[in-house]
Design a protein that fits this description.
By secondary structure, the protein is an all-alpha fold. Helices cover about 65% and strands about 0% of the residues.
């Protein structure tokens, strides 16, 4: 099995996005700012989707897939150097959303899709576990839902309207980006308007 020539994601790419955020006056209520943050999240989800596609197409093996995922995860989830506290908080929100993306992708490669339950059932279980402050169980259920999405199941985003806003809704937001990326892995450039 040979590795594809292309690099899936780089620290430089992530830093380009952060540079753009540092330069802008980010306001989550502003449509352009919100789009920029979503594009940042989607860009990482697309990179993860491309790794998963290379894995399912047998272009790379499980070990390399996990290595590629860990490499991106380490870059994306590291503490960013951003002085503006509001911007830092917004980037932290994007990072939080992506936690479930990475866990789901790694779990899919290690174990395959979870067979029991539906995507929505796992999300409801995750929300219940979060309500009981069992965040490990919550992330376990969220990543179970994620493995099913990677396997081609659908997600009714309306399920988030039934649950209290918190980590699980952030994670579902990330999983929705991954679902879209798997369906249409269009690259988003940091300098796109």
């Amino acid at each position: 099995m040979s590795a594809p020539d292309a690099e899936f994601y780089s620290e430089e790419r992530w830093e380009n996005w952060l540079d753009r955020l540092r330069e802008e006056d980010i306001d989550p209520e502003d449509e352009e700012s919100a789009r920029l943050l979503l594009n940042l999240q989607d860009d990482v989800a697309i990179a993860v989707a491309k790794i998963l596609t290379a894995y399912t197409d047998e272009e790379i093996d499980g070990e390399q897939t996990l290595s590629e995922l860990a490499e991106i995860r380490d870059v994306v989830l590291s503490d960013p150097e951003i002085e503006n506290e509001d911007t830092l908080m917004l980037v932290d929100g994007v990072q939080t959303s992506l936690v479930a993306v990475f866990y789901s992708a790694e779990r899919f490669v290690a174990e395959g899709p979870v067979e029991d339950g539906t995507v929505e059932e796992h999300i409801r279980h995750a929300a219940a576990a979060e309500g009981e402050e069992d965040l490990d169980a919550a992330l376990g259920h969220a990543s179970a839902a994620g493995t099913q999405l990677i396997d081609g199941d659908s997600l009714d985003i309306g399920v988030t309207e039934e649950i209290e806003y918190g980590l699980v809704t952030e994670w579902v937001n990330g999983l929705d980006s991954l679902r879209e990326a798997l369906a249409d892995p269009e690259v988003i450039e940091p300098d796109e308007e």
